[in-house]
Amino acid sequence: VWAVEVAPVCRDDLVRLPRPLSSPQGRVGPLALVSRIGHSIHLLDPTTGGAAEITNDVYWRQPFTPLATKHHLSTFIVLDSDLDQSPWQQPQEAPLPGGKIGANAKGGNAKG
């Protein structure tokens, strides 16, 4: 008989990291997307593009659960993108919800 405890996070989940795992000096902020699950959890910061890997030992010392799963996501299509002159050169985007293509919908502005 085997007893196994599995981390309750999946690929594409949005997670809020505990304070010790996210720091200003780290590569990932307090909100991150799970990009891959394996022997460790791979995270991606959606605002900076930074990546981090959380080992199983670190995860079980500071566990975290998802804020949103991929079922909560919406599809968007980027209609226009302008390069911002910030130090990180992040684009200025005009997204349109995927279900609104061809409809009389207004796109929004999102800073990438």
Automatic annotation (TrEMBL):
Database matches in Pfam families: NMD_SH3
Query: What superkingdom does the record give?
Result: Eukaryota
A single cellular component GO annotation: nucleus
Q: Domain 60S ribosomal export protein NMD3 SH3: where?
A: 9-56
Q: Which GO terms describe its biological process?
A: ribosomal large subunit export from nucleus
Record's InterPro entries?
A: Nmd3 (IPR039768), NMD_SH3 (IPR048899)
User: Region (Disordered) spans which residues?
Assistant: 84-112
Gene Ontology MF terms = ribosomal large subunit binding
Q: Which segments show compositional bias classed as Low complexity? A: 102-112
Q: What is this protein called?
A: 60S ribosomal export protein NMD3 SH3 domain-containing protein
From which organism does this entry originate? Answer: Haptolina ericina
